[in-house]
Amino acid sequence: MISVWWLLRSLFLHTGMSQLRAVTWFEAQTICRENKQSLTVWKNESTNFYWTGFYKKTSHWIKIIDCYNATEIQYGNVNFVELRDSSPQLCQEHCLRKNISLFAVQARKCICLSDGFDYSKSKLDPSNCNYMCSDTTLLSTDCGGETGFNVFLTDTTIINVYSRCLSVECGATPKFTDYSCKFLLSSICSNLVDDWLYSSWTKTKDYCKSTGAYPVGNLTLSNVTMACIEYNLSNTSPGWIGVVKELHNKQDQGQLITYPDQKFITSCMKCRVNYTTQEPQCQYEFCNDNSISEVYCSKNNSVGKYTDTTSEISSTLVTTSGLPIDLKARSTEILLIQIVVPVVLVLLFLSGLIFAVVLYIRRKLSKEKDSKVDTNPSTNDSRIYSNVQPQNSDNYCELQQPYSTSGSTDYSQLQFDS
Ligand SMILES: *[C@@H]1O[C@H](CO)[C@@H](O)[C@H](O)[C@H]1NC(C)=O
Ligand SMILES: *[C@@H]1O[C@H](CO)[C@@H](O)[C@H](O)[C@H]1NC(C)=O
Ligand SMILES: *[C@@H]1O[C@H](CO)[C@@H](O)[C@H](O)[C@H]1NC(C)=O
Ligand SMILES: *[C@@H]1O[C@H](CO)[C@@H](O)[C@H](O)[C@H]1NC(C)=O
Ligand SMILES: *[C@@H]1O[C@H](CO)[C@@H](O)[C@H](O)[C@H]1NC(C)=O
Ligand SMILES: *[C@@H]1O[C@H](CO)[C@@H](O)[C@H](O)[C@H]1NC(C)=O
Ligand SMILES: *[C@@H]1O[C@H](CO)[C@@H](O)[C@H](O)[C@H]1NC(C)=O
Ligand SMILES: *[C@@H]1O[C@H](CO)[C@@H](O)[C@H](O)[C@H]1NC(C)=O
C-alpha cells in the first residue's frame, strides 16, 4: 500500500512540474474570447513568445472578369460602401456577407453587383483599371481607375490546390495544376493571344493587360473539363489563368472563428521582447505552432463585436493593454482531470482488488487456523488501508488547491476588469 502511494505521489509531482501546456493561436483566441476580449495587439508583453491578434487569412477564389465603365457600373448602384482599404478581398468579404458573388472595385469603393449585370456592355481596355490596391500581393494594380471599375467574381468551390494562383492544363486529361505563384508558366489571356513567354502569375497578368485583355477568369472551377471547353483551351502544358486567392492582413476582434473559417487563416503573428536589446521581435508563424504557452488578451475590447465591413471601417483602434493568463492553472487542471484522476481511480481499484484478494486469502487461511487469532491482523490491515485513503485525498487537494485558487483569482480579476 505504501509503495503504491509513493508511486502515486511521484506521479503527481512529476506531472505537476512538467512543462506548461502549449496553445495554438486558435486556443489562445478562444481563451480571450471566453473572457470577452481579443488577443493583445501590443508587441512588448513578454520575453517569451506569445500570440498577438494579427493574422493572415486567404480569401475565397477571386476570378478576374474585366474592367468596366465606372459611369455604367455606378448607374443604379447607389449602395456602394467605402472600404477601409482599396482591396478586392475586403470587397469580396463584404459582398459575400450579402450572398452576392459579383463585385466591383474602384479604389476604396466596393459595389456588389446584381445577377442581371450585363458582362458584354461597357467594357474598357484594362489600361483604364490600373489603380494600386493596398494590402494585396497578387491583384496589386487592379483596383479600378479614374473611369473604370475592376469586376470580379467570387467562387467558393474547394479544389485540391494549395497555391493561391490557379493554373490549368487542358489536354487529354484536363486538370487544375498546383504551382506556386512565382513559377514560370505560359499565359492564357482571354483574347487567346499566343505567347511563348513563360512567367510568374503577376507577370502573366501584366502581360495579358498589355495585350488588352485579362488572364481568363470566368471558368467553372467545379468541373475542369467544362472549364477547358468554355474557352476552347487545349494547352497540353499548364498555363496561368485569372483565378487567385488574396491574402488579408487581419486583426482579432474577439469573434467566434468556426472550423471552416480556421482553414483560411494561414499564419499568425507571434512576438517576444529580445531580452538584450529590449526590442520586440515579431514574426508570422503557422497558427498551429505549439511552442507557445503564454496568453495575453486585450484588457478592454471596445472595438466591439465584428459585424460588418462598414462598421470595421468606421471603428478605430483602441489602446489595449495586455493581461497575462497563467496557463499553469489551466494546464494543471487539465492534467488532473485527464491523467491523474484516472490514474488515481485505477490505483484505488487495484489496491481494492489487492485488499480483497488479501482478505480472501486470509479468510481461506482462517478456515485452517484459529478464527480468533485471525480477526486482529485483518482489522489492523483495514485500518492501514483507511489511513491511506484520507491521506491520499488530502494530498490530492493540497496539490490541486494552489493551482485552482490561483486560477480562480485570475478569472475573477478578468471578470472585474471587463
Ligand atoms: C508596451 O508599450 C506601451 C507603449 O508603447 C506601454 O504603454 C505599455 O505599458 C507597454 N506594455 C508592457 C507590458 O510593457
Ligand atoms: C462611360 O459611359 C458613359 C455613359 O454611358 C460615357 O459617357 C463615357 O464616355 C464612358 N467612358 C468611357 C471611358 O468609355
Ligand atoms: C444565398 O444564395 C443561394 C443561391 O444563390 C441560396 O441558396 C442561399 O439560401 C442564400 N443564402 C442566404 C443566407 O441568403
Ligand atoms: C461567365 O460565365 C457565365 C457562365 O458560364 C456566363 O453566363 C457569363 O456570361 C460569363 N461572363 C463573361 C464576362 O464571359
Ligand atoms: C463535366 O463537364 C463535362 C462537359 O460538360 C461533362 O461531360 C461531365 O459529365 C462533367 N463532369 C461532372 C463530374 O459533372
Ligand atoms: C469555341 O469554339 C467554337 C467552335 O470552334 C466556337 O463556336 C466558340 O465561339 C469558341 N468559344 C470561344 C470562347 O472561343
Ligand atoms: C537579441 O538581439 C541581438 C542583437 O540584435 C541578437 O544578437 C540576439 O540573437 C537576439 N536574441 C534572441 C534571443 O533572439
Ligand atoms: C470597456 O469598454 C466598454 C465599451 O465597449 C465600456 O463601456 C467600459 O467602460 C470599458 N471598461 C473599461 C474598464 O475601460
TrEMBL record:
The chain crosses the membrane at residues 335-361. Residues 370-418 are annotated as: Disordered. Residues 61-155 form the WSC domain. InterPro entries: CTDL_fold, WSC_carb-bd. Residues 1-22 form the signal peptide. Residues 374-395, 401-418 have a biased composition (Polar residues). Keywords: Membrane, Signal, Transmembrane, Transmembrane helix. This is WSC domain-containing protein.
